[in-house]
């Protein structure tokens, strides 16, 4: 009996006094890890990349068309397992992250991710088919991911054909052709923006219609150009007035 108690105490000791990694704060209370094993087979990193792709390369066009993505579409925010947790990330600085549920601070996003896995796993939307990372083959997630974590592999014909089918079925489901003119336009855009480049030939450009970034770069270039041309315009007007005055 005594031996059993001793073994139990020894086994629980490291857990009871483990502190959360990367946590910021002077007066940190030592808390036991919940010890819950996360039984979710969905990559948070790749899901985040998929969300980034949707947000940058699809949503600007969806908003432009004032289109409501149907909830049965896998690109709808409610179909992202990690959406609620990701929305509860507060980022003050590159090395200061805070948990929106319990206000704990962390030095890096990865520590906050670990904290979510340990403490707030109940906020995961665990239902079948809600893993955004599963759509990466169609959404070109590698394109927006840290290039160091992307392994270059030879193009797999069978996998590419499967991804192509996945991509086209997303277009059909999310933007049904017969729903409305805007849905039909977005259906076409989705095929060009995402599905055309799901090929082994590598000849098609990924996201040929551009996205949030290219739109903002375009406006920035126009703004800078206007600011440069404005003084020139006034100089011409001034010189013209002067010329009129003296002639
Ligand atoms: Zn928390």
Automatic annotation (TrEMBL):
- Organism, by scientific name, is Linum tenue
Protein name, entry field: C2H2-type domain-containing protein
Q: Indicate the secretion signal residues.
A: 1-18
Q: The C2H2-type domain covers which part of the protein?
A: 97-120
Q: Which domain of life is it from?
A: Eukaryota
What molecular functions are annotated in GO for this chain? transcription cis-regulatory region binding; zinc ion binding
User: What are the transmembrane regions?
Assistant: 217-239
PANTHER family referenced in this protein's UniProt entry, alphabetically: RE51073P, ZINC FINGER PROTEIN-RELATED
The alphabetical list of record keywords is:
Membrane, Metal-binding, Signal, Transmembrane, Transmembrane helix, Zinc, Zinc-finger
């Amino acid at each position: 009996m005594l031996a059993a108690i001793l073994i139990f105490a020894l086994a629980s000791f490291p857990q009871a006094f483990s502190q959360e990694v990367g946590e910021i704060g002077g007066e940190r209370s030592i808390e036991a890890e919940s010890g819950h094993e996360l039984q979710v087979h969905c990559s948070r990193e790749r899901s985040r990349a998929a969300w980034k792709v949707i947000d940058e390369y699809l949503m600007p066009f969806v908003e432009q068309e004032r289109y409501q993505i149907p909830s049965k579409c896998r690109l709808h925010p409610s179909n992202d397992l990690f959406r609620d947790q990701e929305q509860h990330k507060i980022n003050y600085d590159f090395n200061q992250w805070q948990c929106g549920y319990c206000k704990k601070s962390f030095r890096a996003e990865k520590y906050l991710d670990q904290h979510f896995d340990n403490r707030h796993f109940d906020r995961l939307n665990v239902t079948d088919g809600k893993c955004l990372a599963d759509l990466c083959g169609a959404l070109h997630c590698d394109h927006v991911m840290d290039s160091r974590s992307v392994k270059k592999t030879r193009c797999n014909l069978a996998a590419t054909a499967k991804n192509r089918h996945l991509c086209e079925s997303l277009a059909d489901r999310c933007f049904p052709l017969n729903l409305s003119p805007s849905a039909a336009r977005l259906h076409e855009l989705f095929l060009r923006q995402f599905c055309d480049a799901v090929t082994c030939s590598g000849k098609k450009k990924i996201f040929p219609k551009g996205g949030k970034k290219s739109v903002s770069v375009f406006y920035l270039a126009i703004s800078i150009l206007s600011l440069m041309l404005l003084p020139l315009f006034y100089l011409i007007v001034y010189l013209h007035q002067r010329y009129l005055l003296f002639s």
